[in-house]
Design goal:
- This protein starts with a strand and ends in an 11-residue tail after the last helix.
- It is about 45% helix and about 20% strand.
- A hairpin with a 2-residue loop joins strand 8 and strand 9.
- The chain has about 325 residues and is α+β, with helices and mostly antiparallel strands.
Length: about 325
């Protein structure tokens, strides 16, 4: 006679198709698998709420189905499908069988197996915490610690990815603006004016910008208590003034060496007039551009009732409760 071990599936899964033994990520499953391997069975199978009976190396898609949500009739139907899968896979229900699973999986299934043990129940274990402690003792502290460490790293990466997705969603919904400074990117809502809250992105969250001066190409933004205290415009001298200065230098040369001067007063007055016209033309263009900028600013909608940080919390709540945004849900 052979020996088979059945493990129950768990809710914490990878987000992509892979081998079943790699799909289920929680310490409960991974430690149960490690313990099952110490029993030296002929086969190890997974009892799946969706796929019924799965081999360890069988590639399957992630899913969100659990027996805990099924009523009695649905569980009996699930058991019928499990028995069919056992027949398809050539599993002999008279073989020695070990079930590492809870009541939800076994209440209607055990009666169809003649030679079975349920270590969790035999040890009087109730609750995941006690089962994990028992498994740690069975597989050893070193291996148990490795499994815990790997899962914790997965959780950290998952949280970072989740926060990054929420940040992108928040920026899209709130239409946040950004400006690159010498100290990094400042994030704000609406128009960058005195009194507006400014933030930086840190580890996937909005946090108030530190106090200090943030320099960009044409201005210095002074931040105090997370808000813009002052915006100091950096004025550049018009290029035409440099041209005028060159002409004045030429005048000096003419004064020093009158004999070499070939420009009479009329020609000089004409050139000065041309420069004045050029300056006037540029001033007109600058005024036109400033008018267009003001018009564009008027079209921007600025929401001042709540800060981006408060809206982020609302967005997280919406994402958590809205089935249409399951892609952003952390509870998978």
């Amino acid at each position: 006679m052979g020996k088979n071990v059945f493990l129950s599936c768990v809710s914490e899964k990878a987000d992509h198709k892979c081998k079943a033994e790699e799909l289920y990520l929680s310490p409960l499953f991974q430690k149960s698998l490690a313990y099952a391997q110490t029993l030296n069975p002929d086969n190890i199978y997974i009892l799946s709420a969706k796929y019924f009976v799965v081999d360890l190396d069988e590639e399957i898609e992630p899913y969100d189905v659990t027996l805990k949500d099924m009523n009695a009739d649905q569980k009996r139907e699930w058991v019928d499908n499990v028995l069919k899968k056992c027949e398809e896979k050539g599993i002999n229900r008279d073989d020695e069988t070990v079930f590492l699973a809870g009541h939800a999986y076994l209440d209607y299934l055990l009666e169809y197996f003649s030679n079975y043990t349920v270590p969790y129940q035999d040890a009087g274990l109730e609750g995941i915490g006690y089962i994990l402690q028992w498994l740690d003792q069975q597989i050893g502290v070193e291996l148990a610690s490795q499994i815990d460490f790997k899962f914790n790293e997965y959780q950290k990466n998952k949280n970072r990815n989740m926060k990054s997705k929420l940040m992108k969603l928040a920026k899209m919904i709130m239409k946040l603006a950004e400006i690159e400074t010498d100290k990094g990117v400042l994030i704000y809502e609406g128009e960058l004016v005195e009194g507006v809250e400014v933030f930086i992105e840190k580890e996937g969250e909005f946090v108030p910008a530190d106090d200090g001066e943030y320099i960009v190409e044409d201005k210095t933004i002074v931040v105090a208590e997370g808000k813009v205290k002052e915006i100091i415009e950096v004025k550049k001298e018009p290029e035409v003034e440099e041209t005028v200065e060159v002409i004045e230098n030429e005048d000096v040369i003419v004064d020093e060496k009158p004999a070499e001067n070939t420009i009479n007063n009329e020609e000089k007055d004409l050139r000065i007039k041309e420069l004045e016209d050029l300056v006037a033309e540029k001033d007109a263009k600058i005024a036109e551009l400033e008018a267009e900028i003001e018009e564009m600013k008027g079209k921007l909608q600025m929401s001042a009732d709540k800060s981006p940080k408060e809206k982020m919390k609302e967005i997280e709540e919406v994402v958590k409760n809205n089935p249409a945004l399951k892609y952003f849900n952390t509870n998978k």
